[in-house]
């Protein structure tokens, strides 16, 4: 399970734009990879309450930039399609905490 803040920048003190809420689990015996299904839930502003649904395989260490599919959305993002490019900004090996940059490219009605 995950319920993580999404901020404008890599610092937790940055303005909150939404939350990443969903599920993930191990996807491979041969590499560190996750299968993920989560929603980006926007808070505040014009997109408050709108969501983007993201599904895909996240090869954490194998690729500098990973890509997952945007398969839908709600509110302002109804019928959304596109992709989310993830880049690890930092990773703490002791705590397991990571800061991941999301670049979202979306087409919606």
TrEMBL record:
GO biological-process terms attached to the record: phenylpropanoid biosynthetic process
TM spans (from-to): none
InterPro entries, A to Z: Allene_oxi_cyc_Dirigent, Dirigent
Record keywords: Apoplast, Secreted
Top-level taxon of the source organism: Eukaryota
GO cellular component: apoplast
Coiled coil: none
Pfam families listed in its UniProt record: Dirigent
Subcellular location, record wording: Secreted, Extracellular space, Apoplast
The keyword Iron belongs to this UniProt entry's keyword annotation: no
Family: Belongs to the plant dirigent protein family.
Subunit structure: Homodimer.
Function summary: Dirigent proteins impart stereoselectivity on the phenoxy radical-coupling reaction, yielding optically active lignans from two molecules of coniferyl alcohol in the biosynthesis of lignans, flavonolignans, and alkaloids and thus plays a central role in plant secondary metabolism.
PANTHER family attached to this UniProt entry: NUCLEOPORIN-RELATED
Protein's name in the database: Dirigent protein
Species the sequence originates in: Acorus calamus
